[in-house]
Amino acid sequence: MSCLMVERCGATSFDSPDQNALCVRMLGNARVRGQAGLLSERRGSYPVIDFRLLNTTAHSGEIGTRKRVKRLLSFQRYFHASRLLRGIVPQTCLHLLDEDYLGQARHMLSKVGRWNFDIFLFDRLTNGNSLVTLLCHLFNLHGLIHHFQLDMVKLHRFLVMIQEDYHSQNPYHNAVHAADVTQAMHCYLKEPKLARFLTPLDIMLGLTAAAAHDVDHPGVNQPFLIKTKHHLASLYQNISVLENHHWRSTVGMLRESGLLAHLPVDMIQDIEQQLGSLILATDISRQNEFLTRMKTHLDNRDLSLEDADHKHFILQILQHLQFLLPQRRHESLFCETR
Ligand SMILES: [Zn+2]
Questions:
Q1: Is 28 a residue whose pLDDT tops 50?
Q2: What kind of architecture, by CATH, is found in domain 99-337?
């Protein structure tokens, strides 16, 4: 226990014994006798701290504890550095959940294919990690990890990057919304009439696009970005500004995580292009375009899911259907309780 306390002090890297003494007082609410002495008194349940160890660390500079602390912090620094340009401060949550909560989350996942899945409850049970937990489960459930020989560490890194790039202060366009849309996408993909035509690639594209479709959303819409001459608006020439940004960000994180690095180059390019097409399909201003094409297909009775273009069009429609999600969930809830 005393080692643990010493490491914490090491992380704050005090330069002088006086500062170290102050640190010990703050930690242990104790009275310190002399610079190199032992703690003489302590109150409450605080552990005994060997003050000589602190002094050794302070005088010997980088020896031992500070280096170990640096190594422990390296992942966080890595994530932080990669997002520094976008000005995003990673939100770290230190609350650990006990097995009861995780058990309930696991139980909820056994019913992940239901329309009445409560994503807000799931987010609480997973301690705000609903998107990562859900995606890991769905990738496994659909056999994508095995099929694409995905590295679990890289997959987890990619999903954490996506989740962290959502702005938690957004009341709507946050990671819970992304998890909600992804869970709905899973419900659509398992519809028997569609499911038998889907390849593992279709499923991976559908789930990934759903998870990342609003990533790094600033919480304001395209007209606002255009009127305020935001750099994203000029970068994408006022066309599908946000959607282009979501797509480019997703591709950046895919490459940064190295998740697909083991696949052939032409396959990676195809995945990135198709992800773009699906994420751009979430642009609400394109609604008439999709409705008109769908109506034409229905009038001509020529929609065939064996045709790759038609199947991709249906995946685009599914991405677009998130705008009907609250209504769809309400109706499904009604159906399932009858
Ligand atoms: Zn959305």
A1: no
A2: Orthogonal Bundle (1.10)
